[in-house]
Amino acid sequence: MEFTYNTIQSSSTGIYKEKGSKFLSFAIPISSVEQAKEIIQQHKKDYFDARHVCYAYMLGNERNIYRANDAGEPSGTAGKPILGQINSHQLTDILVIVVRYFGGVLLGKGGLTTAYKEAANDAISNAEKIEKTVKANINIRFDYLMLNDIMNLSKQLNASILEQEFDNECRIKMAINKADEELAKTKLQQLSIHSPIHIHIG
Length: 202
Known about the structure:
The chain is α+β, with helices and mostly antiparallel strands. It is built from 5 helices and 11 strands, in the order βββαββαβαββαββαβ. The chain folds into 2 domains: 4-132, 2-Layer Sandwich (Ribosomal Protein S5, domain 2), CATH 3.30.230; 134-201, Alpha-Beta Plaits (2-Layer Sandwich). The strands form 3 sheets. The chain has a 5-stranded antiparallel beta sheet, sandwiched between helices. Strand 9 and strand 10 form a beta hairpin. Helix 2 (79-88) packs parallel to helix 3 (108-125). The longest helix is centred in the middle third of the chain and has 18 residues, at 108-125. 33% of the residues are buried.
């Protein structure tokens, strides 16, 4: 599996004009389907006077969660070309919305497809692209006597401590690079020879 993925740093905008119609585009970083839906609804409110508010989004480092919506445009002329631009730039965790103000002249299916494609591409091209590392969360329960060993291991793995609780039995939740998951399991199994360690990854 891939251990890195590409997304955008922050929101950006674009525009495309054709025969009086104006296509305003927005590329927005997202982390969940729920967040995407909220942003889409907000844009529908903000641009209530527009003819169409079309969109596509993609989520997950494996790029396997996605949706495209034509929002009343002829089938395949809006959502699909927007999603095509997300794919073309090989991005994920991104929502692209294109708002259309009708200019009075019908563009036809070919014209619409081009317009939505170009509008989406403009917003995405104006965004700063970043590479992110896939993380895995690891929960560890262990005896207090193992604390130094566990903390040393967390440093070796460049882990981020998300939660911690120190008592007779200690608990730590840390985020590590997905690429280091097998190494972490091996190291923890080696440490568990001295004292039981309970591990949950996910």
